[in-house]
Amino acid sequence: MHPHIDLRTDMLIDGEWIPGSGGGAIPTYDPGTGAVITEVPEAGEADVAAAVDAASRAFGSPEWADMLPAARAKLMLNLADLLEADADAFARLETTDQGQPLGVSSGFAVPNAVEHLRYYAGWATKITGITTPLSVPDVDHRTHREPLGVCALITPWNFPLMILMWKLAPALATGNTVVIKPAEQTPLTTLRLAGLVRRAGIPDGVVNVVTGGPEVGRALVRHPAVAKVSFTGSTGVGREIAAEAGRELKHVSLELGGKAPSVITADADIDAAVRGNLMGGLLNSGQVCAAYTRFYVDSARHDEFAEKLAAGAAAMKLGHGLTDGTDMGPVVSAEQRDLAEDYVRIGRDVDGAHLHDRAPAEGEGYFVPPAVFSGVTDGMRIAREEIFGPVLSVLPYDDPDELTARANDTDYGLAAVVWSRDIGVANRLASRIRAGTVWINMPPALDAAASWGGMKASGLGREMGWSAIEAFTQVKSVWTHLG
């Protein structure tokens, strides 16, 4: 274990720390050095069953089921306060385990997690039904929103704590209980958060954590007592979960892959677009589902944009996330590093795109210097396939009328961005691009109040805002005869 990491690594089941029955252990690495931080247990099926059973009992217990909404909100606010008080340790742990620069974990990821807890604590006392004027005499009709039951929260490795909270906060606000399965590459902030749950006063069994790889996730998805699966990750795994959920008629929310287009019109502020696209394309080393990855630039501005984008990317300082001055950290694993470099080779040697000068890779960790390609065409693999790394493709266009079709020529539809000084042009493009979120003249931004999710192969359902309340509840109609 790293000398500066003080953490329980057992699983949390029914309020107890459990070493697990699977017998195996999974190392988690510091991607900035390649060194092992610690090991976490590989859960067995018995551990998954115990966690789901604990969540089922807690869901039906008077202590949780009959808790007043204001009391539930208070527990969530307690957890938010504990997380905020420990924010520096959480940010350093996230950076050590995942690789993102400390400025990202401390300035964005951890505060966003705190914000989500407080935002959904507010919703706990405001979840209302409706009364309906029926065309049936002497009847009062109203609806309730009720929790679903045991929810499986399966989280990714790119923003482990933040994306967990996108799921956990609304699940708790609506009165569900949960079993969390963090990505095996980055489990540590989830386990640290589990250590705060009892301190916040949340009853035992309401929040459970099991650790392990894909088999643990499959066991959780297949458990008959799991009412809902909320998953963020690859489209391939999302399809498997959706198929299983369909057979078992479980509720499911999926936030999956992306290949976000960034449209830069002829009249755009090129320098602002370069700055925003560098942030949108290289945040977290490009390991963002909504990363700006394919840039459609008016042919008259293509060379200027590509050269400025490449110069800005080459000037970024790569280093360990805890090192002062680091602009971009490593990717999460050796596997992800090799995958990104394979795509750089494909773009250069197979697709035949022009690769601009890159900084050399340095250090012992999993570093991938940003790669900017220009003269890219729509059929090239680097323009079509999700890479999840710092590989950016610049594509010229001549006819503005072709932009919508080209931007939409993808299986994905999570996010997009438009850069134009003409707000009418920008909004017409935004209305025609098939993506769950479209930003105009800005780097990517998120807020707990703004619904988030994808179209097409980028997922099912929405998180954040009222959408997440709907995702973790079901509607009951109550008819009362008044005669």
UniProtKB/TrEMBL annotation:
The active site is at residue 255. InterPro entries: Ald_DH/histidinol_DH, Ald_DH_C, Ald_DH_CS_CYS, Ald_DH_CS_GLU, Ald_DH_N, Aldehyde_DH_dom. Keywords: Oxidoreductase. Residues 17-478 form the Aldehyde dehydrogenase domain. Signal peptide: none annotated. SUPFAM superfamilies: ALDH-like. The keyword ATP-binding does not apply. The keyword Oxidoreductase applies. Coiled coil: none annotated. It comes from the Bacteria. Belongs to the aldehyde dehydrogenase family. This is Aldehyde dehydrogenase family protein.
